[in-house]
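Comment on the following before class.
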Amino acid sequence: MMKMTCPSCGSNGNGEPIDPKHFIHDLESQEHKDSIARSLRWFPMDLPRCHCLPYGDRPEDERFFSRFVGHEVSEVYDGVLFWSCPDCAHLFPRFEKGTTLYYKAVLIISGLREKSA
């Protein structure tokens, strides 16, 4: 997660720190291999480290859960398209201005605001 603040109220988007045990897993651990095998039904034996959570590649100051709620619109994008702030309920796009996904998010957010008015 990038460091974010709400564009409306300015609240910080960082939540609780992510437990360091999720950064890099021990591929030699049979317990971990079994856990992955149960969830994926296969295990990539040639990986140098576990990639089940991507937090290990993040800088120290970005290892936090998000306080913002991510909203996905599967017909538009497979992932978070826009965020909502838990403090002021403001909706804002995930993507930078000038991108197609930014404008799609703005259209959807505008439609949601019209429905709630």
The longest strand covers residues 80-84. Helices lie at 30-40, 100-116. DSSP finds two helices and five strands in the chain. The CA atoms of residues 11 and 87 lie 7 Å apart.
